[in-house]
Amino acid sequence: MPDNLRSRIVTEGNARTPNRAMLRAVGFGDDDFSKPIVGVANGFSTITPCNMGLDDLAKRAEAGIRAAGGMPQEFGTITISDGISMGTEGMKYSLVSREVIADSIETVCNGQSLDGVIALGGCDKNMPGALIAIARLNIPAVFVYGGTIKPGHYDGRDLNIVSAFEAVGEYSAGKIDDAELKAVERNACPGAGSCGGMYTANTMSSAIEAMGLSLMYSSTMAAEDAEKADSSEASGKAVVEAIRQQILPSQLLTRKAFENAIAVIMAVGGSTNSVLHLLAIANAIGVDLKIDDFETIRQKVPVLCDLKPSGRYLMVDFHQAGGVPLVMKMLLERGLIHGDALTVTGKTLAEQLAEVPSEPPAGQEVIRPWDNPVYEQGHLAILKGNLATEGAVAKISGVKNPQITGPARVFESEEECLKAILAGNIKAGDVVVVRYEGPKGGPGMREMLAPTSAIIGAGLGDSVGLLTDGRFSGGTYGLVVGHVAPEAAVGGTIALVEEGDTIAIDAHQRSLQLQVSEEELAKRREAWKPREPRYRRGVLAKYAKLVSSSSVGAVTDLDLDL
After folding, report:
1. Are 46 and 79 in contact (CB under 8 A)?
2. How far apart are CA 10 and CA 110, in angstroms?
3. CA 205 to CA 200: how far, in whole Å?
4. Up-side HSE of residue 200: CA atoms within 13 Å toward CB?
């Protein structure tokens, strides 16, 4: 079987003389037309520090592809900076960008008949966007993560982007002055790389490594370290070998691989967004993954890593302590991941982990020993009840008691909610409700890092609940419940909540209840009317028309054949 299985359609035969003529213009020679052509999907951008180092990594990946006998063809894809768009109307485009990234990579790879693809990404939606495309394409592929940012430093403590968000809440509560607020701003982000805790970008890079589509240890490397560039070149060589062996995503992204990823996410204390993204990737590859599967695995897997946002350490510390491979080895030893799952190298996960230690090294506290976990069970609980019949995702790490019953404080947007928090109008015992921020209602399902950070900064993290049909940043912690489905825009019960209603959040019982009688809810439902669409043209209007419930991943291609 030739290595250029797909691209030969544009490079072989007299009829393809024009095609070859154009390829010669971009660097092909006589001996190159029989080589596999590998797309290099480069998310480079100076919009965000997460992606500003990707161009150099792409060049190293191209070098690896050439050294292995392939022909790289680089193309660009977009990114949105979650951190910069946070708290603004622009954040509505963040989750939408996942679909745009997936569509763009799929379009180029199929439009150009590429034999394989290596995708490089940094900010949060780059990873799931690339994986959705890779799943749809089902051509040999490797994902390269741009790497984590190194910590900033101020007054003897490590800083990261969440430090800046929380400083806003501290400033509003009178805990810090103007000078300290400005100092945090100036020192939080010292260079290239994605946000430094176990936030969404680092959660998804860890999950992709667990699923075998990235090289070992690559998900936790710092963006600016030499090993990241070396790993990118090795990834280029790996994708060419995967083309030769025809190792396809459908062989890697199996049910076992998704279960492995969920187990790792629970063990490392990962982001709520991982639930949304893994459901979407599973949809793209055709694996029957349900939101309830996260709860099943959560109950078996402890949180082993003491990582921010609720813990003490950053991604650079996690990498030094042993990273994802060490966590996977600990899980494998206890039968909590599938060692026979295949990786892009052609080896099984167990074979890849054979030389990895079974226990964390002494003298560090980032990765805990099995008999002394951070939490006995995973931290992402799936709640259901009359407020979320399809489910909701609660992040309960860093919470002293993941239960609260209190009066609803209802807000129709994130901006209204943040204004009330900063004005001191939210009190201990309140349950904050932010609605019409779901996939359709937003549209775009904004993240709520600004309100949750303000709550933490105000010292209310253990005494205020917050629930929304929108999302939370990977930097969020506290008693927060997101992805409430059905969402308000389609008439979910969250749309019927009134100011002062009693809401009970109980993560122990996995329950989310509006304590209003069925008779009263029926009256409210009868009176409820859908809101006019916020957008009637452009990408957000198209997204709102197509997007599914968050309970199935907020995908835009569900049931298109019906």
Report:
1. no
2. 12
3. 8
4. 30
Rounded CA separation 271/284 (Å): 21
β-bridge mates for residue 41, sequence order: 75, 119
pLDDT at 453: 83
Q: What is d(CA 175, CA 185) in angstroms, rounded to the nearest whole number?
A: 16
* pLDDT tens profile 452-467: 888 888 888 889 999 9
Distance CA 2, CA 9 (A): 12
Of residues 47, 19, 49, 52, the one with CA closest to residue 33: 19
Helix (H, G, I), strand (E, B) or coil at 288: coil
Residues 6+ apart with CB under 8 A from 239: 38, 65, 70, 116, 117, 118, 140, 141, 142, 344
pTM reported for the whole predicted model = 0.96
Average pLDDT, the chain: 96
Q: For residue 79, which of 100, 58, 57, 110 has the smallest C-alpha distance? A: 100
Structure-block tokens of residue 3: 């290595």
Task: Please give the structure tokens belonging to residue 200.
Answer: 């969404």
Entry field: residues in the chain? 562
Under a CB-based contact definition with an 8 Å cutoff, are residues 478 and 399 in contact? yes
Three-state SS sequence of 381-415: EEEEECCEEEEEEEECCCCCCCEEEEEEEEECCHH
Which residue numbers are catalytic? Answer: 473
CA dist list (Å): 30 to 11, 12, 20, 34, 431? 11, 12, 9, 9, 68
